[in-house]
Structures are given as C-alpha cells and as structure tokens.
Prior knowledge:
The chain is of the alpha/beta class. Helix content is 46%, strand content 17%. The protein folds into 2 domains: 2-128 and 264-296, Response regulator (Rossmann fold, 3-Layer(aba) Sandwich); 130-261 and 309-323, Rossmann fold (3-Layer(aba) Sandwich).
Amino acid sequence: MRKLKSQFAIFSVALSFVATGCQSHSTYVLVANNLKLPYWKTVDAGFEKAAAEHGATAVLNGPDGLDPQAELEAFRQAVARKPSGILVSVADAALFREDINAAIAAGIPVVTVDSDAPTSSRLYFIGTNNVAAGRLGGKRLVEKLGNKGNVVFFTYPDQPNLEDRMEGYEDEISGHAGIKIIDVVDIKGDAGNAFDATQGYVTKTGADKIDAFVCLESSSGRAVAEVLKRANVTDRTLIAMDDDKETLQLIQDGKVEATISQKPFTMGYVGLEALDQIHRYAHKPFKSNYTVDTFAPYPVFVDTGTALVDKMNVDLYLANAKAAGVN
C-alpha cells in the first residue's frame, strides 16, 4: 500500500492546486491495478501526453500488485476529490459496480479502460476486443499443435478482460477435439507462480506431456520462457500476451512463438481525450446505462486494436518501440 499512499499524496496536491488556483484547470485520474507491470507505464505515458496537450493534470493511482480491494480504495479516493474525470481498469467488475454507479450519479465521468465493468453505469469502454484477441492467439495455437495436444493457461480469475481472452481461445479450440486444456493456473498477480507451475508441467512426458503454454496476461510469458530455457526444452509452444521489450526479444530468439499485442499507449491517450471531451461538453445528468440507448452521445466500446506478433514482424515492433523512446 506504500505506492498507493504516495500516489494519493500527489493526487491530493494536484487537486488542492485546482481547488485554490485556476478553477478552469482539469484534473483526470487513471486508476489501475498491478502498476508494477511495464504495461501500465505505457498506458500512463499516453495519458500524460494527452494531458499535456490539453493543459490538464494527469494523476496515476492504484496498488503496485494485484489487489482489487486496494484498487477500489484508490478509486474511492479519486471520487472523493471530485476530479474532472476518471479512467479506470477494473480488476473485479462486481466489486466496482456500485462505486462506479455512485460516481456517475454524482456527475463524475467514468470511462473504463483495458478491463471493463459492463454491468455498471460507466459511460463506455476503451481498450482491446479481448474475445477477438483470444481468438487470434487460439488460431496460432491450433496451427502449431496440428489439432492435437495438451495446453496449460496462465491467468487470474474474475478480471473481465482475461475472462474474455479465455473465451476467445476456447472458441477456437472447441472445434478441435484433440486439443485438451489440462489446467488454467491462477498466478495470483505474481509471475513467480507461473514459473513454479511450469517447472512441474515441463517434466511430464508421454500422454501427460504439455505441448503448449498460453499466457493471458503480460507477466507470465517471460517466466514460462525462463523455465523452458533452463530445462533446455525446445519442443513446446509458448504464446504470450503484450509486446514489452523483453517479450519481443524472446520472440526474436525463438523462445516465444508469438504474442498478442495491444495498444496500451493509445488506450491512455484516447482515454484522456475522451474524458476531456466529456468534461467540456457533458450531457448531464448522466444516464445509468447508455448501452441500450440508440440515441446515446457516447459509444459502447472503442476498440484500440490488436495484432499477432511473431518472427515475421517482431523487428518492426522493436523499431517502433525504440522510435517512441520505450527501449
């Protein structure tokens, strides 16, 4: 919780400035979970860039690790300070529903990013079509296994985006009776748990051999690749998630078959742009559900895009990251 407290202190100073200084100045808050991941640094970079272009203040708030309750507390702190808008990645949709609804009822714009809360009153969702992302990975998995093999997945439950990715993979696998899902490992927000589970599975042989490992979140791919490297195992398929530099280099080296790339910078940038537009031209009071309103001023979903990265195009992704100053 130390990280959460320090970020909230910055957040308090930022909003105190707004309250005592320029009344027209806008402050937008990005609330997320597991902020230690490089993924969120990229989302925040997009959020900060858009804020600078709009002359607004951007604040990142949330726990370093996987802690939905601590993230909810960060969201509540943000709401209490009445910012111009909140962009939130929801770790647990059911847990966040009432608080999102209360924020909307209080006139605070809330847009979800990366992971949605579709049954809440959030205005709309910006991020990946995660079912489609799962299908994209699932197609490559089927191609590599040749319609037969044992698969282990790494994820953590209750987070909507990861559940959607699993649905996409299952859709692709469902037509191939020879492909068996042996386990869905809950890594509990810690890649070390993926490492430990892989050590147990990599030694299995014969009918019990695990032919493929699939990671539904960004941290476990590197851990699984390390186990396979140490065991000198080269006959397994590993499909990762996201395009951080280390994962891309593992694809270059042939340690990872492919990864599903999202656009986290775009999510943060478009998210702040959306909040600023809503803040300046809000249709208040907000309705409780724009999803079923065909005359709504807001979309239901803004898809920021996905792509499969493998040896054929990985150099392009590394070059783009370098040009953006990420490397």
